[in-house]
Amino acid sequence: MRKYLFGTGIITAITGGITLLRGLREDSPFTWRTALAWLSWGISLTLAIGAIVDVRRASRGETVDPDSPVSGQEQKLLKARIRRNR
């Protein structure tokens, strides 16, 4: 579980969210640029979580969507997981 939570995608998304929250504390108005920044953060967080789900599925030997970065590596990840659990 640790390798998923401390992945670079999640850390980057959390850091970006913290930065956006700090920007809300200041007395700056909520503009369309702020809305786009929050939308971008949401998309980044969703993609990071999706990558974690794909890696987890692939390491269990399940198939993943063809557009996933780990597509085609399911058997390799499953073998690595079996080796770790011995």
From TrEMBL:
Reply yes or no: does the keyword Transmembrane apply. Answer: yes
For whether the record's keyword set contains Membrane, the answer is yes
| Protein name (record) | NADH:ubiquinone oxidoreductase
Bilayer-crossing regions: 5-24, 30-53
- Lineage, please? Bacteria, Bacillati, Actinomycetota, Actinomycetes, Micrococcales
Write out the entry's keywords from A to Z.
Membrane, Transmembrane, Transmembrane helix
